[in-house]
Input
Amino acid sequence: MLNSGSYQISILLLSSVVTERRQFRLPIPMAGSTGGTSSSNPSSNPSAPKILLAKPSAGPVPGKFGRGGGEDETAPHRARLPPVGSLNLLSDSWEFHIDRFLPFLTENTDFKVVGIIGPPGVGKSTIMNELYGFDGISPGMLPPFAVQSEDTRAMARHCTVGIEPRISSERLILLDTQSVFSPSVLSEIMRPDGSSTVSVLSGESLSSELAHEIMNIQLGVLLASICHILLVVSEGVHDNNMWHLMLTVDLLKHGIPDPSSVTPPLHSQSSTLGPDKEARDKVHEGEEYMATPVFVHTKIQDQDLSPLKIMQTKEALLQYFSSSSFMRRKCGNKATDPSSVTHINAKDASLPNLFVIPYKNKDDYPRAQCESYISSLWKLRDQVLSMNCPSFTRNVSERDWLKGSAKIWELVKSSPIIAEYDRTLLSCGMFRR
Output
């Protein structure tokens, strides 16, 4: 564990290598509305979690929002649920809302949280739809997460605002997030005088460029604290901006626990033996929770899919994160495909997980390219679902996880280490005041 002096030195060293951000001047985008419908379990099993499926285009879908299958049960239950367009955990005002998603969670403790982070246009929502198990062939079914259309891309808009949650039938809580390094997000928060409309550091006024930088870091720290698995998505093999962001997250996450550490124990009676005692010992020993990262590189060209190129990328990833806490996190797989060259083998379980997805080319040999692209998405889903990742400090239910995540967000926004990093960036002259 680093002392205060070491952290100040690390922050100064890190700020000196922050890459310059381009000045974006794009039309102010209009964020798309969000929501969800629920496909449900029979009413005979009230403890089963609700399943959040698709995003309706307008209004609720009759008979599809409740847990029960009968018509008499649907309307009363739907009246207790939040509006379909307000399920975001993290809103565009950078506030955390648990009341919108809480009705969809239960006291189930057997669940896994998977988050995703990356720049715009790399296929984050597409990957999350695949993890959900969405079948695009089924008629009348909308994807759980909206994907970027040609019109949205042409108008420089982003599809996802803040954090959008969904729950799969495998009790997989999926957190799709707004893009980092996004020109449309930057233009949305920018006032005419260049200041930010969003308060990111407990009311402190910042320039829009600096606020955007801090928002990216805060989002990464939050996801690394509340998820079991964090997918870090980049485009191609030569873009290391996400690698650098995750190194920054690793440095600035110091002191931020996991959601179970800020919620009461699952059982009210105190226990001095068993898992709870082991969890308390971990806290006293100073171990800090960190979600297991899976580095996903999308839109890989054919010349970069050779085993030699992939091995070089693995070696570069290993060297880049050699001194980070990611190297101390182990997350094995129940089963691996030894013939596949797109992910790290089981013997390399201590290394950061790397996965590559080829470019989906519709013009040249569309059949072969699409099959390779779809096959890679399937393999990624299988790998994520089979991961045996470290659990939270204590056993926690879905509802308590959400309540604890809200408290973690408050700790992130008031983090003195992130605030010190902000002051360092200002003093270095990298961002205007």
